[in-house]
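Exercise 7. Given the components listed, write out the predicted structure of the assembled complex. Treat all entries as one system.
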Amino acid sequence: MVVFKEHYIKFILYMAVIVLVNIAGLNLFFRADLTGNKIFSLSEASKKAAATLSEPLSIKVFFPKPARSSQQHGTLSKGFAG
Amino acid sequence: MSQIKIIAFKEFKDYFISPIAYIVIALFLIVTGWFFFSTFFIYSRADLRDFFALLPMVFSFFVPAITMRLFAEEKNVGSYETLLTLPVSFSQIALGKFIAATLFTSTMLVPTLSYPVFISFIGDLDWGPVAGGYIGAVFLAGAYCAMGLFASALTRNQIIAFIIGCALCFTLTILNRMLFFVPSQIVGLIEYIGANTHFANFSKGVLDTRDIIYFLSLVSIFLFSTHLVMQEKN
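Answer.
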């Protein structure tokens, strides 16, 4: 019984460490875009342009085919937010 | 270190001695090949995105079938006791078996490398997402192998090990499609726990440390659980 309890505590501690590492990783991350045209990254020019904005910007996007392009749009808008 | 290598090599070799390996690899290639190429020409896009979209689902059935025998069979046959009398620790056994299963699943993916080669003949293929997808597939295979190994350590019956492993892998696979049913406050958390979003990033060609950390955490959680189960059952 004592051994069982010890395992239990060990497991909980281990889980806590893993969760903390994941939370830390959420804020401290690095990404590499392997696509040929860097289609999932923002270019330097757009980053500079975004840095000059003083007030919130709303973006209207029109999709010809919903499923695919809205996915890419999601990735890029997350890039702007980050 | 050398013990882990010996166990991993022994388990890996065992797959190819029995007919299991050839049956599993053949079935895997038939299933993925059929599902991928049956819609490939309709979309008329030269990429492997649909192949990688298929992988989490296919892996959640094939990987438990690969890992189910690792502990369950040894316990059933009785060679597990012999293994424990040898000068190896629990963690070395678990790690060795895990490496063997991951290596075998990666071997299963090698014949599918012919798909991008064929596709590059008929269209302009971007190799970045292909490389990312295969790196992600190895991480995904590792995570699912760790879960399957844990399921196998729980029981001496291979069928039960297979079903528990399937249930674990399948839950992580479809979690992202169940977001509709969860309250809005925890959508982000549930989305993070699901394996699909992380793997989708890899198959888009984006290597992100967050996704790598996620898969490594899954591996370490389930290997640690396997280790605990082994201690508990002893």
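Discussion: The beta strands of chain B are 206-208. Chain B touches chain A at residues 126-129, 131-132, 192, 204-210, 213-214, 217, 220-221, 224-225, 228, 231-232 (CB under 8 Å).
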